[in-house]
């Protein structure tokens, strides 16, 4: 039996049992190769892995039935115009033009052949390679003796997979909240912690970014030279609580000038950020505007949108702290119309 079936047929009942009764030792046979040549491990004891594989097979079977029902009718559809003119081009009958009838049949054949080729690509694609390999391994281990289930799908595995992923996302979000709470407690544990954050940021010497220390407690200014913008940052403390609960940002316009619409848009985005207690996060977010007039939107890849607006929205990328190094944050630029 080959690792990848070469003919399109519904997954046999034994196939489903072979997937749902895993053995870890044979789980990675036939899996796609990683960039370094190693086989990425697949955990066939994982419920999500099993349900995901069954969902792929369920979709494969649905495609098979769809092709069986549609392909014959679509191939012969041009011939229906011989008795029903509404099926012909622009409401005319193909019978009026044998050339058009031939072209219609050829086009129908090309379209359905493309559908079949797409199905073959799905069947033989990298996502299903490890599934077929695991099925064959289970069949080999059991000498082909697999207990047959009912032969019918008992669950909608797409729906079940989404439910499992939702639970998994909830767990991940809870871990993130716990990690953030631990970071917050550490940042607020000392009155002078914020000054160390500022010094670390200054030492990075980012181009076009200047930090201006102010005499007031919990206050500083950041100048973005290229953008021609100065932001004032002030810490806000909660009564009877250590550390800073929020760092508020305002635009500092020169005397006699009110903040521009662009400055107000940036300030609004900065003050609507998450991690309001995290000064390091805020400083990195402000510095992401340093090349504002040269930074394109990550969604539309344009500098300005149809309203001639620059991408002033910032969305934090998912980053992990490096061991032994201060954590830094990166941000994507977006137009407000592209969010």
From TrEMBL:
It comes from the Eukaryota. Keywords: Nucleus, Transcription, Transcription regulation. It is found in: Nucleus. GO terms for cellular component: mediator complex. Pfam families: Med27. Residues 1-42 are annotated as: Disordered. Residues 1-22 have a biased composition (Low complexity). Its main location: nucleus. InterPro entries: Mediator_Med27 (IPR021627). Signal peptide: none annotated. Belongs to the Mediator complex subunit 27 family. This is Mediator complex subunit 27.
């Amino acid at each position: 039996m080959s690792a990848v079936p070469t003919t399109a047929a519904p997954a046999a009942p034994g196939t489903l049992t072979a997937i749902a009764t895993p053995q870890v030792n044979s789980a990675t046979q036939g899996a796609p190769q990683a960039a370094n040549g190693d086989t990425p491990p697949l955990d066939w004891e994982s419920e999500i892995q099993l349900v995901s594989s069954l969902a792929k097979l369920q979709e494969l079977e649905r495609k098979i039935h769809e092709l069986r029902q549609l392909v014959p009718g679509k191939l012969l559809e041009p011939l229906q115009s011989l008795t029903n003119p509404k099926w012909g081009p622009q409401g005319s009958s193909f019978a009026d033009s044998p050339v058009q009838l031939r072209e219609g049949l050829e086009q129908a054949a090309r379209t359905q052949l493309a559908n079949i080729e797409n199905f073959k690509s799905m069947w033989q694609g990298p996502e299903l390679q490890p599934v077929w390999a695991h099925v064959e391994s289970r069949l080999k281990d059991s000498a082909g003796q697999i207990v047959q289930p009912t032969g019918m799908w008992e669950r909608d595995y797409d729906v079940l997979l989404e439910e499992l992923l939702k639970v998994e996302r909830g767990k991940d979000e809870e871990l993130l909240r716990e990690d953030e709470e631990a970071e917050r407690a550490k940042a607020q544990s000392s009155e002078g912690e914020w000054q160390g954050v500022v010094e670390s940021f200054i030492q990075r010497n980012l181009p076009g970014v200047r930090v201006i220390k102010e005499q007031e407690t919990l206050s500083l200014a950041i100048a973005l030279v290229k953008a021609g913008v100065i932001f004032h940052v002030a810490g806000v403390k909660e009564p009877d609580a250590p550390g800073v609960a929020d760092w508020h940002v305002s635009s500092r316009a020169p005397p006699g000038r009110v903040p521009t619409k662009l400055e107000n848009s940036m300030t609004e985005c900065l003050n609507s950020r998450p991690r309001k207690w995290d000064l390091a996060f805020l400083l990195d977010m402000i510095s992401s505007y340093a090349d504002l007039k040269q930074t394109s939107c990550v969604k539309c890849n344009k500098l300005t949108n149809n309203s001639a607006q620059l991408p002033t929205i910032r969305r934090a990328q998912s980053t992990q702290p490096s061991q032994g190094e201060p954590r830094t944050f990166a941000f994507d630029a977006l137009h407000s119309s592209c969010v």
